[in-house]
Structure formats: C-alpha cells, structure tokens
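Could you help me review a protein record that somebody else here produced? This is what I was given.
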Amino acid sequence: MSITRILAPLWQPACRAAFFLTLVFALYMALAPAPIATPTLDSYGDKAEHMLAFATLTTLARLGWTRAPNWLVLERLSFIGALIEVFQAIPSLHRDCDWHDWVADTLAIMATLGVIKLLRLSGVLDMANRPRLRPVTRGNA
C-alpha cells in the first residue's frame, strides 16, 4: 500500500482547503486595483504570475479531488481564468484585460495535468481513492 493511500484521508481535505485559500488569493491578486507587489515574479512578466497561480491551483485540485476527471479540472479552472479576464475589463478596477493571460492560464493547467498524469503512470504518484478494506464475498467471509 502506497503512502498516498494511507495519508489520503488527511491530505485530501488539506489540499481542498488550500485550493480554496489559493483561489481567493489569486482572485484578489487578479482583481484588486493595487495588488501586492511580487518583485521576483514581476521580472518575468505577468504571464509567469498567471501560470504559477494556475499550476498551483491545478495541483491542489488534482490532489484534493482525486476522482475528478482531468477534462473537468481543465474546464473549470480555464473558465475561472476566462472570468478573471472578463472582470478585469471592468473600468473601475483599473486592470488590463488580455486574452493572452487566459491562454497562459489554460496552458499552465494543461501542462500541470500532463505532468501529474506522467507521475501517475510512472507510479510515483498514486492518487487512487479506493477503500482500504476488501469487500466481504462468499469466499473470504
């Protein structure tokens, strides 16, 4: 039995909570008129900030909801990225709406899902959420 299956009851709720906290922080950073400065990331441009935020959200989503299919994680997080760009078009926020940011978000989600898939296929990451006890059948009752 892998360590991830043993710790699943503990880390899944923790990852879900971390996902929502990270989402709130990302939304604040994306929609606040004067967000917190990130000097290290600012040197790489705002696309790096977008990609880091959505790679983190994707990782936490996959670890928190192990049974959710990849297409659903991609669809929901990409939709959040698109909504952020729509809201940034509101003039009173003094933010710039750029569809390239949404593309960067979606590419980061897809790349992260690909890495997680490779880790699962190689056996490094076992995200199966199966019961730990065998079901009772006639042969082993």
In short: The chain has one domain: 11-31+40-121. The helical segments are 3-31, 39-42, 46-64, 70-88, 99-121. Residues 130-134 have pLDDT under 50 and may be disordered. The two ends are 22 Å apart (CA to CA).
